[in-house]
Amino acid sequence: MPDEEIRPDPVEMNRSMLKNYDMPGKRTVLICPECGGPLWEIRRHNLISFQCHVGHTLSLESFLEEQAEEIELSLWKTLRTLKDRAEIFRQIAAERSQQDDSVAAQQLEMQAENALRRAELLRHALQVGELKPDPESLAPDQTPDLD
Ligand SMILES: [Zn+2]
Q1: How many angstroms separate the alpha carbon of residue 70 from the centre of ligand 1?
Q2: In this predicted structure, what is the pLDDT of residue 101?
Q3: Contact present, 33 and 70 (Cβ < 8 Å)
Q4: CA 34–ligand 1 middle distance (angstroms)
Q5: How many whole angstroms from 55 Cα to the centroid of ligand 1?
Q6: Does any domain span residue 142?
Q7: How far is the CA of 37 from the centre of ligand 1 (A)?
Q8: Is 0.85 topped by the overall pTM?
Q9: Fewest beta carbons less than 10 Å away: which of 27, 30, 51, 123?
Q10: 29-33, 75-79, 125-129: lowest mean pLDDT where?
Q11: CA 28 to ligand 1 centroid distance, Å
Q12: Residue 2: alpha-carbon gap to chain centroid
């Protein structure tokens, strides 16, 4: 076997290097919004921040903001998809109706209604919105109590 030497896969090598890389703080289940890597929680003087392997750093406040934006974006995206879905069901229902297949048409209309009902629930969720956290509650007072 000429030239069949086993070389380490650079990707694997990087992965194990990253695995062994000594990150400060405690690993979380959270994902870095910038690169999708895992986040470590870092606490300094009561302040919580997050950092990933490649060095993206976020304060707790900015992490929560990113998360809120992501939630809103995905809700809008799902709402739009449900409306598209209802439209497709309606179109096919109309075709079935013209072909005198009223049973299929009725079932498809029900599917359309179902998609629209779910879309309305999402619209309601988007209208309710979310309360912004008070920055004070995220970064508690660090001055020692002198009482
Ligand atoms: Zn990152």
Answers
A1: 16
A2: 96
A3: yes
A4: 5
A5: 6
A6: no
A7: 5
A8: no
A9: 27
A10: 125-129
A11: 13
A12: 49
57 CA distance to ligand 1 middle (Å): 8
Q: What is the mean pLDDT of residues 99-118?
A: 97
- Residue type at 128? V
The whole domain housing 107 covers 71-130
How many domains does the structure of the chain reveal?
1
Q: Are the beta carbons of 32 and 38 closer than 8 angstroms?
A: yes
Residue 75 C-alpha from the chain's centroid: 10
What is the residue type of 94? Answer: A
Residue 22 pLDDT exceeds 80: no
DSSP the chain: -TT-PPPPPHHHHHHHHHHHS--SSEEEEEE-TTT--EEEEEEETTEEEEEETT--EEEHHHHHHHHHHHHHHHHHHHHHHHHHHHHHHHHHHHHHHHTT-HHHHHHHHHHHHHHHHHHHHHHHHHHH--PPPPHHHHS---SPP--
80 pLDDT exceeds 90?
A: yes
Q: What is the mean pLDDT of residues 140-147?
A: 60
CA–centroid distance, 38 to ligand 1, in Å, is 8
Is residue 83 one of the residues assigned to a domain?
Answer: yes
Residue 118 reports pLDDT greater than 90: yes
